[in-house]
Write a structure and sequence with these properties.
about 230 residues, alpha/beta, Rossmann fold, 9 helices, about 40% helix, binds NADP nicotinamide-adenine-dinucleotide phosphate
Length: about 230
């Protein structure tokens, strides 16, 4: 199994990549040229350093890829760097899907794992673009799984996102959800919306990537916690 990891330099990517390699999986981390200049993954032996719009380079990597893990995206505060929801949340997914469709796999089928967000829905703004990216994957013809986690918590994860910022859930939020979770009938709802540790999310993506199942599925917090707990 070879994973093409888009978003390798992000918070989730930086937690997922070492876990996947420790598990013995071959990973091709995608690194944007402007990031490669100042990021350790720019010198990674297996890295694919290119713009995802570079179809020739992307297709070469895709020819070795059995699983695409797409963790790309942006936030409003990064728009000043030139990234937008169109260029970071939608276009990379379209480019990866187009490549997966162009380049046949020698045997078997690929698996597309997309990191979306809790609340993705038709409409505008961040959540609307997350929905549109999901739709690209759902209609791709490539077996897929979509993750819809809530707010990230990077505590004890060793995350090293390229923007250098913490993904820290306020203690009061975590405490409030611990309380809600203990109320009768609210455990699943609380698991969907409470902050999710990046370690749990990365473990769940790893497990699902190895199992290549479930496909045709959108996983909320409750399923992500459940899949992650099977890792050990
Ligand atoms: N933060 C939360 O609480 C939360 C909750 C639910 C879902 N999410 C979603 O989870 C995803 C990952 O979050 P994160 O915190 O790990 O993000 P992050 O640290 O901001 O990382 C984003 C990654 O996407 C890459 N990227 C951005 N635009 C790209 C493009 N046009 N082409 C190729 N790569 C591109 C970045 O590369 P560079 O390093 O080159 O910039 C980086 O590797 C995001 O899509 C986010 O929307 C976040």
């Amino acid at each position: 199994m070879t994973i093409l990891l888009a978003g390798a330099t992000g918070a989730v990517g930086s937690v997922f990549l070492p876990r996947a390699r420790e598990a013995g999986l071959r990973v091709i981390p995608h690194v944007r040229p402007q990031t490669a200049q100042h990021h350790p993954l720019g010198h990674d032996h297996d890295a694919l350093v290119c713009d995802l719009a570079d179809a020739a380079k992307l297709d070469r990597a895709m020819s070795e890829t059995s699983t695409i893990v797409c963790l790309v995206g942006t936030t409003r505060r990064r728009f000043s760097s030139g990234d937008t929801y169109v260029t970071s949340d939608l276009a990379p997914v379209e480019q990866l899907v187009a490549s997966a469709r162009r380049v046949p796999l020698a045997s078997g089928s690929r698996h597309f794992v997309l990191l979306s967000s809790l609340g993705a829905r038709q409409g505008g703004g961040y959540l609307g673009f997350k929905w549109r990216a999901e739709e690209v994957v759902r209609t791709s013809g490539v077996p897929w799984t979509i993750f819809r986690p809530s707010m990230f918590d990077d505590a004890d994860s060793g995350a090293t996102p390229s923007d250098g910022r913490r993904r820290h859930a306020p203690a009061v939020v975590s405490a409030a959800f611990r309380f809600v979770r203990a109320l009768p009938g609210l455990a699943n709802f609380a698991d969907d919306v409470r902050p999710i540790p990046l370690t749990v999310l990365a473990d769940a993506i790893l497990r699902l990537t190895k199992d290549r199942a479930p496909t045709t599925s959108v996983l909320r917090g409750r399923e992500i916690w459940s899949v992650a707990n099977k890792v050990n």
